[in-house]
């Protein structure tokens, strides 16, 4: 190797121009991957928090209906579905619903798939968020208004006092003033719920809105009875019509 060529190679190896660009080029994939993982993790956490809030509301909604004897499993599941979709759980699926009437306990499990933000990085296109909620509520129902759209359907007048620490009250009215708690009223109830608006001038604070209406237990009972034995329906046996025996010889002529 000639002295001139050796000198050029030496200068090339000693030259540090562009070293930062090489380091940056090596770090860019790592930085992009870290950002992608961070965004995916934040998305999973956000979706799971939304789903958890929706499942919590579904468990509470079902728990308020435990005292209704006519409720069946499919009714509880429909109520849970209504609360789930109304509170940000649209697209989620209820994977498990356990109802303990005796212990006034409800357990709801749900899952919701959503698209990954960077499927090209980790190879995962869909991510499933899961959430579980358990509600232990006093399920006895002390007062129930069945009016569907009447104002002041459930009305606690001024200075009224109601004592029922182990039960609650609900208004099925979707009116803006479907539930009215008067001035200086004192309600010692576990919960108060309304399907519509609430006008609260008293001291009670444990109030929930947008509750699913409770079906009329007596009406459901009458529907079942009328379905089996409809009213105003009688069975009448008609007398047999007189018949004539035709000889075979005559029958043969008309064949």
List keywords for this structure.
255 residues, alpha/beta, four-stranded parallel β-sheet, 6 helices, flat
Description:
With 255 residues, the protein is α/β, with parallel strands linked by helices. The protein is 36% helix and 26% strand. It has helices at residues 3-14, 19-63, 73-86, 119-122, 217-228, 248-253; strands at 93-100, 105-115, 126-136, 140-145, 154-156, 161-171, 179-181, 186-194, 198-200, 207-208. The strands form three sheets. The chain has a four-stranded parallel β-sheet with strand order 4-6-8-10, with no helix packed on it. Helix 2 crosses helix 3 (73-86). The longest helix has 45 residues, at 19-63. It is flat.
Tell me briefly what this model is.
The protein contains six helices and ten strands. The protein is an alpha/beta fold and 255 residues long.
The CA-CA distance between the termini, in Å, is 126 Å
Biggest β-sheet description: 4 strands, parallel
Spans where pLDDT lies below 50 across 5 or more residues = none
Q: What count of helical segments does DSSP give?
A: 6
Helix percent band? 25-40%
What sort of overall outline do the alpha carbons produce when their principal axes are compared?
Answer: flat
Widest beta sheet: strand line-up? 4-6-8-10
The overall pLDDT average reads 77
**H/E order of the elements?**
HHHEEHEEEEEEEEHH
Give the SSE layout:
Elements: H1 3-14, H2 19-63, H3 73-86, E1 93-100, E2 105-115, H4 119-122, E3 126-136, E4 140-145, E5 154-156, E6 161-171, E7 179-181, E8 186-194, E9 198-200, E10 207-208, H5 217-228, H6 248-253
Parallel strand pairs: 4-6, 5-7, 6-8, 7-9, 8-10
Antiparallel strand pairs: 1-2, 2-3
